[in-house]
Amino acid sequence: MPNDLSASAPLHRTTEPRVLVRVSDMGKQYRQNSPMVFENVSFDIHQGDFVCLIGHSGCGKSSILNILAGLEQPTTGGVIIDGREVTRPGLDRGVVFQGHALLPWMTALQNVAFAVRAREPAASRHAVREKAEHYLAMVGLAKAMHKKPFELSGGMRQRVGIARAFSTQPRLLLMDEPFGALDALTRGLIQEELLRICTETRQTVFMITHDVDEAILLADRVLLMSNGPSAKLAEDVANPLPRSRTRERMHHESGFYEFRNHLVDFLVRRSALVQSDPNL
Ligand SMILES: Nc1ncnc2c1ncn2[C@@H]1O[C@H](COP(=O)(O)OP(=O)(O)OP(=O)(O)O)[C@@H](O)[C@H]1O
Ligand SMILES: [Mg+2]
Fold first, then answer.
1. 19: closest CA among 92, 84, 91?
2. Is 108 in the same domain as 220?
3. Start-to-end C-alpha separation, the chain
4. 75: buried, middle or exposed (CB in 10 Å: 19+, 13-18, 0-12)?
5. Could you read off the pLDDT tens digit of each residue along the chain, which spans 280 residues?
6. Number of domains in the chain
7. Residue 77 in contact with ligand 1 by CB distance below 6 A
8. Which of 48, 66, 67, 278 has the fewest CB atoms within 10 Å, i.e. the most exposed one?
9. What is the DSSP string of 178-202?
């Protein structure tokens, strides 16, 4: 990959928020002679942005997130976070995986405390435990924190993963369909809590979702990927609704239905047409 990825445009601008993440001309091929999963993917994420990525199954969304996490290497192009090229995982990034990825021999509390300890090695035992408990309570697991993953439901495990990622207060939070396994009520509560925290702390988030309404509630920008193989980043759409939106009220905001229809129409129609005509 070129060494001067950051040279194409300044990473620090005076008139706009700072660019935290720059993805440049990224492509991924898992095996030689197999088709590219995706290619020519470029986008920036500004400090404090909440960006959602939507696209059909198999277009390469998790692969992109894993590259941002430093768990996979891109075949072409690359990622710069905070001025540094991503080559491996780091504590500056918190990841919530599509599956929960908890340590099976540890309780929920120990799983979260382990992450807090890694991030803050000098913190007291008491401070680590308090922080872990706080984030577990936030996802509604105050009563289940001493259970091990095999004793928890799928949705509860996923919530431990969410608490773990939040508890490290990462510069960049990466989430791969984090709410897919949750019931509608819990999902709604956590979505609103997430929006509140992200707005208050200006947390930068990159999140994959299949749920258009979830993207409208949470995202400042929605990235739309065309179908694979050779998937492309087809559109980068700003959310026209005010950030004060809530799940109950957002459909009353002006522009809601137009925005929603635009996203749904992409998934139903345009995502399959992009490869034949990029202007559709
Ligand atoms: N480690 C791997 N080795 C080989 N092929 C892989 C690997 N990971 C993903 N792929 C392939 O890359 C393509 C994209 O996979 P990816 O998991 O990134 O898609 P996705 O958009 O996240 O799909 P979903 O919405 O179903 O989660 C698929 O064809 C998949 O089989
Ligand atoms: Mg995926």
1. 84
2. no
3. 30
4. middle
5. 333 344 444 455 456 789 999 999 999 999 999 999 999 999 999 999 999 999 999 999 999 999 999 999 999 999 999 999 999 999 899 999 877 789 999 999 999 999 999 999 999 999 999 999 999 998 889 999 999 999 998 888 988 998 999 899 899 999 999 988 788 888 888 888 888 888 888 899 999 999 999 999 999 999 999 998 999 999 999 999 998 899 999 999 999 999 999 999 999 998 887 665 555 4
6. 2
7. no
8. 278
9. TTTTS-HHHHHHHHHHHHHHHHHHT
Q: Is the CB of 60 under 6 A from ligand 1?
A: yes
Domain of residue 266, CATH code: 3.40.50.300
Ligand 1 atom closest to 66 (CA) = 18
Structural domain containing residue 44? 17-92+172-273
In terms of domains, do 151 and 237 share one? no
65 part of a folded domain: yes
Q: Is residue 45 part of a domain?
A: yes
Atom 6 of ligand 1: nearest residue by CA position: 30
